[in-house]
Amino acid sequence: MSSASERIARAVSPDTKPRTIDFWVHDPEAPSFRHRLAALFPTLEARGFICRTEVFPRRRYATRVLERLARLREIDLLVIAKLKLLPFEARIVRRAARRIVYDFVDAIFLGKPELPGKAPDDSFFRRSKFAATCRAADLVVVGSPALAREAKRWARRVELVPTAVDVSRYSPDVPRTGNRLVWIGQPGNLPYLDLVRAPLQELSREMPDLRLRVVCNRFPQWPELRLERLFWSDATEAAALATSDVGLMPLSDDAWAAGKGAFKLLQYMAAGLPAVASPVGMNRTVVVPGATGFLASDPKAWLDSLRFLLRFPEKRRVMGEIARRRVESEYDLQVIAPKVADLYVSAIGERGGAGEIRRS
Q1: Cα dihedral 86, 91, 93, 97 sign
Q2: Of 137, 59, 66, which is closest to residue 103 (Cα–Cα)?
Q3: Does the pLDDT value for residue 195 go beyond 80?
Q4: Region 167-330: CATH code
Q5: CA–CA separation, 330 vs 350, rounded Å?
Q6: pLDDT mean over 37-52
Q7: CATH number corresponding to 3-164+333-359
């Protein structure tokens, strides 16, 4: 139990039993958990919940559930974070748990393709686990429309809630050079950056002072470009974006990429940057073309969009301001966290419901 949760437990009236939430997750340090769920803990604790993170093994089938049965019968809500249960495990958990929320981003019902654009692995085993976990849940919370459509096939209630960004961490009012593009992401997603290597190479010939900043723990080897290699850290990522000029989010147009939640776009927007992104999945919802950035579907569109943003600094500044206001009003942690807390309260209050999608 966290120290904050302990303070809340002591503050609750002796006649009121505090509500408890356990979060089952394979890796508590994964960005998808830290940004999407762990960031909600202060808001949930302020609402009287006690939040507990449980590292759930990837193997040890059956045993991993049986070891947690006693705890399941005690807590008010179980949140299953992104992982998938075997069908018989899902039935055991459903019988033991009072209420269950299943929360995920990414197309976890598919296997990630080896390279962007290649067909993802689509196995019966993976889909059966996904379907069983959806069926067991009282509420499924997803991060993109494509995921909501898939979850609706199996779940009794589905809510679309974007992953929130803590806008307060990003300062848009910092000096900028006007010639720095930026991409942030995990090493496994670097192949998406390769999709725009050709237009970036063309731009670098036109603009010798152009720089590409890559915020990651691994970096491309592109001798034709002036690369700035910044190792990612939670303490420095906000400043690394705020001192850049234009954000990049290329994606391949496939079923796996369609499930992505566009979180890096929200980070760019929070930092006051316009962005250029592929028109795939949640990117279509987040980017307002011509207002907060551009959607580019081919190399020429990427080249034209980036050229415009780099050559017209005043337009770029205005678009960055609009992007910042948009993320503040729709995707900020202070906006999203209370909505998720309300969903958890409703899940505890009543089990089941109509099989529908409502967008938060």
Answers
A1: positive
A2: 137
A3: yes
A4: 3.40.50.2000
A5: 27
A6: 96
A7: 3.40.50.2000
Q: How many CB atoms lie within 10 A of CB 192?
A: 21
How do residues 143-177 score in pLDDT, each as one tens digit? 999 999 999 999 999 999 999 999 999 987 777 87
If pLDDT is split at 50, 70 and 90, which confidence band does 136 have?
A: very high
Q: Does the structure show a pLDDT above 50 at 271? A: yes
For the chain, give the number of residues.
360
88 sits in which H/E element: helix 87-96
User: Which tokens in the block code for residue 202?
Assistant: 């063309």
How far is residue 90's CA from residue 272's CA, in Å, rounded to a whole number? 43
pLDDT number for residue 177: 78
Tokens read off for 355: 């099989």
Residue ranges of domains in the chain:
3-164+333-359, 167-330
Q: Are 72 and 93 in contact (CB under 8 A)?
A: yes
> What is the C-alpha to C-alpha distance for residues 306 and 191, in angstroms, rounded to an integer?
20
| Residue 103, amino acid | D
How many H-runs (helices) and E-runs (strands) does the chain carry? 17, 13
Q: Which one, of 190, 116, 115, 107, lies nearest residue 150 by Cα?
A: 107
Identical fold, 3-164+333-359 and 167-330: yes
Name the DSSP letter for residue 67: T
Strand order in the sheet with 357-359: 49-55, 19-25, 77-81, 100-104, 139-142, 158-160, 357-359
pLDDT digits (tens, 9 = 90+) for 78-135: 999 999 999 999 999 999 999 999 999 999 999 998 888 888 889 999 999 999 999 9
Read out DSSP for 218-247?
Answer: S----TTS-EEEEE--TTTHHHHHHT-SEE
Q: Which helix or strand (DSSP H or E) is residue 171 part of?
A: none
> Cα Rg for the chain, rounded, in angstroms?
21
